[in-house]
Amino acid sequence: MKEIVKDVTVAFVIVFIIMQFYEPTRVFGISMQPNFHEKDYLLLSKEAYAKSSPKRGDVVVFQSSLVSFKGDKELLIKRVIGLPGDKVVIKNGDVYVNGKQQSDYYTEDRYTAGDISVTVPEGEYFCMGDNRQHSTDSRFSSVGCVSSSLIKGKVIFRFYPFNKAGKIKSI
């Protein structure tokens, strides 16, 4: 019996330590298709930005001001498009960062709706979903640019569905 108690205690300690640095999360909705789908299970690194900043192309999870039907503030998963100080322009379905047209090969429709010109404030990030036609993101005033303090972490691994399990790479 002592061995079982010891094993369970060690397991809890290990899980507690791991949870200080990583957090499992799940995808809700279609805003990140075709790269992430409803009910994908992902691993979030909470320490990814402890000594560095998000990079363009990183997939992040952040606390938004949007409120769910349960009354909770929603966590959103989006891709970093613009960094602090970048000028992001969306026109004629294309995205430009600092005057350079972005390749949107990873998006659902390769078209981005909107007519936007914004300079990303210091300490904030311009984030969009990969399914641009069905994503509430930094293009909308309800989300806007995302403060670094609201970013919970970087998506680093998908562990379900099993046939798509693996490390998540930035675009």
Automatic annotation (TrEMBL):
Membrane topology of this protein: Single-pass type II membrane protein
Catalytic reaction equation(s): Cleavage of hydrophobic, N-terminal signal or leader sequences from secreted and periplasmic proteins
GO molecular function, one term: serine-type endopeptidase activity
A Gene Ontology cellular-component term: plasma membrane
Residue span, Peptidase S26 domain: 2-160
EC number, UniProt record: 3.4.21.89
Keyword set, alphabetical order: Hydrolase, Protease
Subcellular location as annotated: Cell membrane; Membrane
Enzyme category, top tier: hydrolase
UniProt keyword rRNA-binding, yes or no: no
Protein name per the record: Signal peptidase I
Organism this protein belongs to: Aminicella lysinilytica
